[in-house]
Design brief:
This protein is an alpha+beta fold. The chain has one helix and four strands; from the N terminus they run E-E-E-E-H.
Length: 64
């Protein structure tokens, strides 16, 4: 997918000097994840809303 994402926000779990990701939303409702250091040149991982919820659920269940 090659979509325009807006309102990128940095993850609160990111390390500001090294490992940093951002999450944004497209006008079509998909969620994008990117590496902050590669803004504009790096890949964006695209999730549908259903995939995003499953991803977040899996992450939260592994934190226990």
């Amino acid at each position: 997918m090659n979509q325009h994402y807006s309102r990128w926000r940095k993850s609160s779990y990111s390390n500001p000097s090294t490992e940093c990701i951002e999450v944004g939303r497209s006008s079509k409702g998909t969620i994008g994840v990117r590496d902050t250091r590669q803004i504009g040149v790096g890949p964006v991982l695209d999730f549908t809303p259903r995939e995003w919820l499953a991803f977040i659920k899996a992450i939260r269940s592994s934190d226990s």
